[in-house]
Design a protein that fits this description.
Layout: H1 9-40, H2 45-72, H3 81-98, H4 106-138, H5 142-172, H6 177-202, H7 217-225, H8 228-259, H9 263-290, H10 292-312, H11 318-354, H12 359-387, H13 398-423, H14 436-445
Helix pairs in contact: 1-4, 1-5, 1-6, 1-8, 2-4, 2-12, 3-4, 3-6, 4-5, 4-12, 5-6, 5-9, 5-11, 8-11, 8-12, 8-13, 9-10, 9-11, 10-11, 10-13, 12-13
Length: about 450
C-alpha cells in the first residue's frame, strides 16, 4: 500500500522521539566516552583509542547481516517497529553500565570497557537501523520523507544540545566524576527507553513490499556495490563523521585544558545546538531551492573555514572562541541533516535501476558508516593526543595543548574539506543501464 498523503504531525513527532531516544545516548557517548575512559577509568589514551577502533571492526560483522534480517522480518507490528519494541530496554540499560567505573585492575577495566562498548554498539544497531529505515515505509511521498529526515536530525540535534549543556554541570554536583557519569548514563538510558517506545507506539508502516522476500544477501550486496552514488555518499558521510566525531571527542579536552573552563563547553554546546535546530528546521527550504547536493557542499565549506579559524584563534580571545565554537555546533546539525537527507535519493536511484527494495541493507550500511566514523574519530583522537604527549593525571604541556588543538580543529577541517570535494562527484540523475549480472540474478530469484 502506498501512502501519498501527508503524515500527521503526531506521527512525525513520534518518529523524531525515536531519534531523540537513541541518539541522546549515542551523542553522549561520542562526546564523553573517550574522556571517561582516559580521565575517569584511568585507561591510557592509546588503549582507549584502540578500544574504540577494535569494537568497530568486530561490530562490522553484525550490521550488514542484521540489515538483511530486517528486510526479511514480517510481524504483526511490521518489519521495522518490532526492533524498537524489544531493543529499547536492553539499549537503555546498557547505557548505564557503560559509564560505570568498576574497582577492577587495569586489565579488568580494559576488558569491561571493551565488552560494554561492543554490547551497546550492537544494541544501537538494533534500534537505529530500523528507526532510520522507517523513513522509507511511513510514506512514499518524497517531500514527506524529506520532512521526516528533518525531524530525525532536529530531534538528534535537541539530544546533542541537551547532552552538551547538562553533562558538566550535573557531573559537578556529585562528589566525584565516577558517580556523576554513572548517574548521567543511567538517566539517559531511562530516557532512551521511554522515547524509543513512544516512537514504536506512534508510528505506522504504510508502505509495504512483499515481492522481494527471496532476495539473497549476495544479490543485495551486488546491488549496493553497483550503486555509485551511494558509494560516493558513504565515503563522504564517513569523512563527515570523522570531522564531527574528532571534534566532538576532543571538545571537552579543548575547553578543560586549552581554554581552562569546562563550563564553557556546556554553553557552546547548548547555544550551538539551539541555533542548529532552528537552521535545521529551515534547511529543507534552502535544500529544495538549491538542491541537497549543493547544500551539502556549502555546509562543508563553511565547516572547513570555521575549524581553521578555531585553530588560529588565541584561546585568550574568549568572545571569538565562543562564537567560532558555537558555529561549529551549529554546523554539526546542518551536516547531519545533509548526510541523512541525501540517503533516500541514493536508495531511490537503486530502486529505479533494478526494482529491489532492500532499504534495510542500505540503512544498515549507512548506520555502520556513521558508527565507524564516530569510533575511528574517537580512536584517532586518542592516538593523536597520545602522540602529542597527553597523559592522564599529568599537567598539560605546550606540546599536549597543541595536540588537543590539532585534534579539535585542524584534523576536522581537513576531513570536512575532503567530504565536500567528494560530493562534487555525486550524481544520481544520470541514467544508467542496469547491470546485466544483477538483472540475471534477480530474474532467477524473483
Amino acid at each position: 500500500m502506498n501512502n501519498t498523503v501527508s503524515l500527521a504531525l503526531k506521527e512525525k513527532l513520534a518518529f523524531g522521539m525515536g531519534a531523540f531516544g537513541k541518539d541522546f545516548v549515542y551523542i553522549f557517548i561520542s562526546m564523553y566516552l573517550l574522556y571517561f575512559y582516559t580521565d575517569v577509568l584511568q585507561i591510557p589514551a592509546t588503549t582507549a583509542g584502540a578500544i574504540l577502533l577494535i569494537v568497530r571492526l568486530v561490530d562490522a560483522l553484525f550490521d550488514l547481516p542484521f540489515g538483511f534480517l530486517v528486510d526479511k522480518t514480517r510481524t504483526r507490528w511490521g518489519k521495522l517497529r518490532p526492533y524498537l519494541l524489544f531493543g529499547a530496554v536492553p539499549y537503555g540499560a546498557c547505557a548505564a553500565f557503560l559509564f560505570y567505573a568498576p574497582a577492577f585492575s587495569q586489565s579488568g577495566k580494559i576488558f569491561y570497557a571493551f565488552t560494554l562498548y561492543l554490547l551497546i554498539s550492537i544494541l544501537y544497531s538494533i534500534v537505529s537501523i530500523p528507526h532510520a529505515a522507517l523513513n522509507t515505509v511511513m510514506t512514499d511521498n518524497i517531500q514527506e520523507r524529506a520532512h521526516l529526515s528533518k525531524y530525525l536530525v532536529m530531534f538528534s540535534g535537541i539530544a546533542a544540545a541537551v547532552a552538551g549543556v547538562i553533562t558538566v554541570p550535573i557531573v559537578s554536583l556529585f562528589p566525584n566524576e565516577k558517580s556523576g557519569y554513572f548517574f548521567m548514563g543511567a538517566s539517559l538510558g531511562m530516557l532512551a527507553i521511554i522515547f524509543i517506545l513512544l516512537c514504536f507506539r506512534g508510528t505506522t508502516e504504510q508502505v509495504t513490499n512483499t515481492d522481494n522476500k527471496s532476495v539473497p544477501l549476495r544479490l543485495a550486496l551486488k546491488t549496493v556495490m553497483t550503486n555509485i552514488p551511494f558509494l560516493i555518499l558513504c565515503a563522504s558521510f564517513l569523512l563527515a563523521q570523522l570531522s564531527l566525531g574528532i571534534r566532538s571527542a576532543a571538545g571537552i579536552y579543548y575547553f578543560i585544558y586549552n581554554v581552562g573552563n569546562a563550563n564553557l563547553f556546556s554553553i557552546v554546546s547548548g547555544i550551538g545546538g539551539i541555533i542548529g535546530l532552528v537552521l535545521t528546521f529551515l534547511s529543507p527550504l534552502l535544500a529544495l531551492r538549491i538542491g541537497m547536493k549543493k547544500y551539502y557542499i556549502l555546509v562543508g565549506a563553511f565547516t572547513v573555514i570555521d575549524f581553521l579559524l578555531i585553530y588560529f584563534t588565541p584561546v585568550s580571545n574568549i568572545p571569538l572562541v565562543l562564537t567560532l565554537n558555537i558555529m561549529a555546533g551549529t554546523l554539526t546539525g546542518l551536516t547531519m541533516f545533509a548526510g541523512w537527507g541525501m540517503l533516500p535519493d541514493a536508495i531511490s536511484y537503486s530502486i529505479k535501476r533494478n526494482g529491489l527494495h532492500i532499504e534495510g541493507v542500505y540503512y544498515s550500511l549507512y548506520n555502520f558508516i556513521q558508527k565507524l566514523g564516530t569510533s575511528l574519530a574517537g580512536g584517532l583522537a586518542g592516538f593523536v593526543l597520545a602522540a602529542y604527549g597527553y597523559q592522564t593525571g599529568n599537567a598539560p604541556t605546550p606540546q599536549s595543548l597543541e595536540g588537543i588543538l590539532v585534534t579539535s580543529a585542524l584534523i576536522p577541517a581537513a576531513c570536512a574539506l575532503l567530504f565536500s570535494i567528494l560530493m562534487v562527484f555525486y550524481n544520481s540523475n544520470k541514467a544508467e543501464a542496469i547491470n546485466s549480472q544483477i538483472e540475471g540474478d534477480r530474474s532467477n530469484v524473483l
